[in-house]
Amino acid sequence: MTQKNKVHQINDCLCLCESKIHNKGVFASKEIPAKTTLLEYTGELINKEEGTKRENESIEQSKKDPTKAGTYILEIDEEQDLDGDTEENYAKYINHGCEPNCEFDIKGKKAWIKTTKKINKNEELLLNYGFEWNEKKYHLHPCKCGSPKCTGYILEEESWQKLKEHLNKKSLKH
Questions:
Q1: Is the pTM of this model over 0.85?
Q2: CATH code for 8-132?
Q3: Which of 29, 85, 91, 141 would disulfide-bridge 72, Cβ 3.0–4.6 Å?
Q4: Which run of H or of E encompasses 115?
Q5: What pLDDT, in 10s, does the model give residues 46-66?
Q6: Residue in 76, 98, 82 with CA at minimum distance from that of residue 149
């Protein structure tokens, strides 16, 4: 699993292997219908303060080691986050894409990955990580999905217009 080009079968329909987007990715090992619940995003439930602390630490680590993701912290609700940076959490390897084919389905204190459309065999699973707009932090999460709709940054779709306006203002200043 840690060697290049190695394939690790996660379950009967998913495998972990090298991704063109970032390091490793989760791919369909057979066709998967839309609205299929694939796997749970597991990890440690933590409070918001601890979640922010760990997110900041992991962003700093990813600057030193580009094979690491910026963060594996998932917001569960207003009080708790889920730190998915555990060895057994294969869902953490699902990369961000500006044209996702999966979504998070949060039920209570658990988060599941669910397909939003049919996924073909050998297709990479993609999620929109849904990072909120933050003028001071958006650049910390560049997107490398390669989609024609790619904004260049990992942001929730509702923030794309704010990013566009910000970048236009920035280019006018230079």
A1: yes
A2: 2.170.270.10
A3: 85
A4: strand 110-115
A5: 999 999 999 889 888 888 887
A6: 98
